[in-house]
């Protein structure tokens, strides 16, 4: 299948998602509110902490808001494009309904990942972006078009890393038959991404900044807006996203071999 | 009472089957403690006291908060109740002399015993790693007040979960509302920051809400964040919320049954 065919399939899935969302408008409103509340919770947390301190690891309140906004942006994009597709994957593997994806004439991982969109997540990604823009405004920053494009590219790399982590944790379902508890591992890891890199010291820095990719995914784009282009951070995130995508695809393909189709 | 003792014992066996789920959750809670440690270390790097408390006191508060959740919080009781209503499994309770609230409460307590037992090992490791950093107050009255506070905290958390489960009588899907309430509980229950760091007016207002008594209140008593007067005042308000929520949960059950069509089962 050509990339154009995949794009047409994805567009068909997107159309189906929009129609479905319009059918369940109340559900859309509730879930939009859920995500909005969680974002508000994180903003309130920063606001309360900064009542008692001027900086966290050298980051001022609005610098921190920009970092958290970036983290939210990546997470909401992940929720919007991929989360519910993988949420269903574990159940499909257990019930054998995963056969449906294998029977399709395309790459199974692409078919699994692109079945539907969650419009509430995508709507909230706009709010996260608004938080980033507002924080930059409060900081008096005027990033150039190049910095903005680079920010977008690095957020995309961050999305690739988070997508890879999602694929990895869910691929374990091929072996364990249950991903319960594993999705919590993603959320716990993602929490480290809301912290500035300077907060990590010693062993924590080695493991959480250098070995696991979550801190760089948020810090690299945020720093681009705050301090301009830094080739070390940009190349580091690019390398990390390629590496983790390769690992995730390899584990997913390995897991596929374990799949034994449970349905009758 | 014997029937609820049996429900408790069955619940104990059922929870032991899911011991790995609890174990995974407890390990991630310890990782959560690491996030707390890194964040608050950075906060305290700028000032030795935050809200009048030193780093050790804040770390003790969060450690207690995470541990106590395994003994008093509702994990997925709302979903379990919702599933039982949706699938008609409550039909059997309508035909037998069993109080559904007490039945679910017995299972809730058995599950908390198992989750509490499982969290002991990771907590012991965490406490060992944090040795010398945790600061516990020495006043004896704290334990005397904390014990009823913890018991009522469990009742409040169970009752809230039970009420959300009851929503299934009216709504097809409750998941969105449950996660919405989790966001409110996490902030007003003091899970993200100690509530005493909020502006004084907001902190005072929070004391009149049930979320305050879910997690912040018992952890604040045991970690020394609130004094004797506030702790004792809190007991009276916590008792009010416990009775109000248990009463409301039972009210929802009675009203919900009027709409119930006993599908499936």
Number of helices of chain A: 12
Low-confidence stretches of chain A: none
State the helical fraction of chain A: over 70%
Shape type of chain A? globular
Helix content of chain B: over 70%
**Main β-sheet description of chain B:** none
Largest sheet properties of chain A: none
Note the gap between the termini of chain A: 30 Å
**Strand segment tally of chain A:** 0
Q: Give the SSE string of chain A.
A: HHHHHHHHHHHH
Structure class of chain A: mainly alpha
How far apart the termini of chain B lie comes to 26 Å
Name the average pLDDT of chain A. Answer: 89
Q: Would you tell me the structural class of the helices and strands of chain B?
A: mainly alpha
Report the β-strand fraction of chain A as a percent range: under 5%
SSE pattern of chain B, N- to C-terminal: HHHHHHHHHHH
* Beta-strand content estimate of chain B: under 5%
What's the overall average pLDDT of chain B, rounded? 91
Which overall shape of chain B is indicated by the principal axes computed on the Cα atoms?
Answer: globular
As a whole number of angstroms, the C-alpha radius of gyration of chain A is: 19 Å
Explain this structure.
The complex is a heterodimer of chains A (264) and B (265). Chain A is mainly α and 264 residues long. Chain A has one domain. In chain A, 78% of the residues lie in helices and 0% in strands. The longest helix of chain A has 35 residues, at 61-95. The two termini of chain A are 30 Å apart. Chain B is mostly helical. Chain B has one domain (2-259). Helices cover 73% and strands 0% of the residues of chain B. Chain B is built from eleven helices and no strands. In chain B, helix 2 packs antiparallel against helix 3, helix 3 packs across helix 10 (216-223) and helix 4 (77-86) packs parallel to helix 7. Chain B is globular. The model of chain B has no long low-confidence stretch (mean pLDDT 91). At the A-B interface, helix 2 and helix 9 of A face helix 2 and helix 8 of B.
